[in-house]
Amino acid sequence: MSAQTSAEWPVLSIKGSPDPEVLGDIRALTDAASEADGNPPLSEQTWVNLKSVDPDNLLVLASYAGEERSDPSTATSLAGVAVVNLPAHGESNGVLELVVHPTYRNQGVGTGLVAALQEHTDLPALKAWSHGDHEGAAKLAGRFGFAPVRELWRMRLTHAPQLPDVVLPDGVSIRAFVPGKDEQAWLAANAAAFAYHPEQGSTTLADLQARMAEDWFDPAGFLLAVRNNDDALLGFHWTKVHPRTGTHPSIGEVYVVGVTPEAQGTGLGKALTIAGMKHLHEQGQQAIMLYVDADNEAAVALYRKLGFTRWDTDVMYGPAGTEGS
Which superkingdom does the taxonomy of this entry point to (predicted)? Predict the structure, then answer.
């Protein structure tokens, strides 16, 4: 851990997981940003990494407000934070997420964090997410030579439509995930279904277990499509319920839907999507959201047929001239 100082925004650099006090400051900062923006500024995977004990894949830069600039009405003096998930073995790019407290925006905090980041890592080796495609993030990205390389849409269904029946392929049924039994089979199916996907396809057992340890995890909402004669896993729909936070009501999520290569083209993906939506409605969730890559035309078309509309966009930035990953 080390500290850098500037005229106004001292920056604390941490390799690995922050201590509980700093982690609490980050939580308060992101809660304030979420309430102000309507978007979580850090991804779920980043939170998994922040709470892990692996010192090799995480870099945190925390910018604290000086006493003369602190606003006593805020819960923390943390003005901004940059979190870098450093490249794992075999990966070419790390991923940066940066958030500034609403109280301290447009005061140079973000620029200072990126400038400090250059002392620790090679900026062209990073990609950066802007959750909600904020104007400030676009300006900051442009200032450092970054341009949009990927769009992740958030789509939303705000009412409970009359859903079609769940029509499964012959010899296939749906059951709930069983903790302690299905982890390895799910990891294999997930890797096969998302071999092309930069994040989902690389999910590890530790990632899965971290999510299973979260308060929102409900195995009854983790639906598995299995072959009847041997229980082989062919697809899945993992649902999630986001609890009410502040003024934002609870909302269900099509968390992840996957179909193994051998079962693709059979209609199983649509059947699983509908089954998961029905489950969320049965849990009292009228509104449902999901994430989908903007260029995944088949998935976007399916979700639109089911009543989803585009709600918001997360944008990944990379050095100008690069492609999304």
Answer: Bacteria
Q: Is 259 annotated as contributing to ligand binding?
A: yes
Closest CA to 155 of 305, 44, 264, 280: 305
Domain shared by 182 and 265, yes or no:
yes
* Residue 81 labeled ligand binder: no
Report whether 266 belongs to an annotated binding site: yes
Pairing verdict, β 94-100 and 222-227: unpaired
The answer to whether 139 is a known ligand-binding residue is no
> pTM, whole model, 2 decimals?
0.81
The verdict on whether residue 99 carries a ligand-binding annotation is yes
Residue 267 marked as a ligand binder: yes
When divided into structural domains, the chain yields a total of 2
User: Is 253 annotated as a binding-site member?
Assistant: yes
**Strand ranges, E, within the chain:** 2-4, 11-15, 58-64, 78-85, 94-100, 126-131, 146-157, 172-176, 222-227, 233-242, 251-259, 288-293, 309-319
Does the annotation list 83 as a binding residue?
no
**Domain co-membership, 163 together with 264:** yes
- The answer on whether 151 is annotated among ligand-binding residues is no
Q: Are residues 176 and 81 in the same domain?
A: no
Q: Is 269 annotated as a binding residue?
A: yes
Q: Is 184 annotated as a binding residue?
A: no
> Tens place of pLDDT for every residue, the chain, 325 residues?
444 444 468 888 998 889 899 999 999 999 999 888 888 899 988 988 888 765 578 899 999 886 543 443 443 489 999 999 877 655 667 899 999 999 999 999 999 999 999 888 888 889 999 998 888 888 888 988 999 999 999 999 988 778 999 999 999 999 999 999 999 999 999 999 998 876 787 889 988 999 999 999 999 999 999 999 999 999 999 999 998 876 778 899 999 999 999 999 999 999 999 999 999 999 999 899 999 999 999 899 999 999 999 999 999 999 886 655 4
CA distance 50 to 89: 19
Q: Is 100 known to sit in a ligand binding site?
A: yes
268 annotated to bind ligand: yes
Contact, 99 vs 46, CB < 8 A? no
CATH assignment at residue 191: 3.40.630.30
